[in-house]
Amino acid sequence: MAAGKIGKYERLDVLGSGTSGVVYLAWDTLLRRQVALKEIRADGAEMERLLEEARVLDRLQHPHIVRIHSVDVTADGIVLLDMELIKGRNLASVLKERAGTPLDAGEATRIALAVLDALAYAHERRIVHRDIKPANILIGDDGAIKLSDFGLAEALGTGSVAGGGGTYPYMAPEDFSEDAASDRRSDLWAVGVLLYEMLTGRRPFTVTRQRDPFAWKRAVEQDNPPMPTDANPALAPAWNTLLIQ
After folding, report:
1. Is 213 a residue whose pLDDT tops 80?
2. Most buried residue among 16, 54, 199, 206 by CB atoms closer than 10 A?
3. Does 57 have pLDDT greater than 80?
4. Range 30-34, long-range pairs (CB < 8 A, 24+ positions)
């Protein structure tokens, strides 16, 4: 259980943590509402990157994208991102709980379409997400689907973003290069991987060395994933055409 106050927020509990910081369930004492409060300690270039993330999020007002309410920086260099609180869980926890059992095709399609709708909106504004994965897809207790964590998002600028980025199992082949130029196609590739995983209960590509980017690159470029209907015979054959090109 988290405790203590920071700025106008009372920390109530820890919702999640990672390399970039901690997300708390918090109480906004001024507006008197619960929020998801992301706290990240940063300085210099990292501070500017985080503020740019907030600017990106502020431009995205869509029913399937987690909203940002405000951003603040404390005197000791902690960035506070006050975000919409989604009561529910993420898709990663759903898939883990199912332990290889596929989702219903209708539910998998509903989730994928919501993510694609959110991405179409972002792409129209020349923003790519760059880290589509189950942990960044929230499923509310009311059934709402929300795309979160645009921490790797970038403006498309001239049409692409240098430097790759993302999470290995969901990265497109071109994103493994140091001089990679990610564009909206990287997001769409990741959604395809995600949909395959939801429908079959397994990822299309697997490696022994999970943290080895070269192993993932070889798998994505050289391996042929099983047809979806081989992994899940209950699926309609049309899924083979849709997911395996």
Report:
1. yes
2. 199
3. no
4. 34/85
Query: What is the C-alpha to C-alpha distance for residues 229 and 241, in angstroms, rounded to an integer?
Result: 10
CA 228 from centroid of its chain's CA atoms:
23
Q: How far apart, in whole angstroms, are the C-alpha atoms of residue 65 and residue 146?
A: 5
For residue 227, give the DSSP letter: P
Query: Tokens in use for 22?
Result: 């901690």
Catalytic residue flag (residue 131): yes
Q: Which residue has the higher pLDDT, 29 or 178?
A: 29
User: Which candidate in 131, 149, 175, 183 is catalytic?
Assistant: 131
Q: Domains of the chain, with CATH numbers?
A: 5-83 (3.30.200.20), 88-243 (1.10.510.10)
Which sign does the torsion angle of CA 72, 40, 151, 45 carry?
A: positive
- Whether the Cβ atoms of residue 32 and residue 104 lie closer than 8 Å to each other: no
**Whether the Cβ atoms of residue 87 and residue 140 lie closer than 8 Å to each other:** yes
Q: How many CA atoms lie within 13 A of 11 on its CB side?
A: 18
pLDDT tens digit sequence for 115-160:
999 999 999 988 888 889 999 999 999 999 999 887 655 554 434 3
pTM score of the predicted model: 0.86
Confidence of residue 21 (pLDDT cuts 50, 70, 90): confident
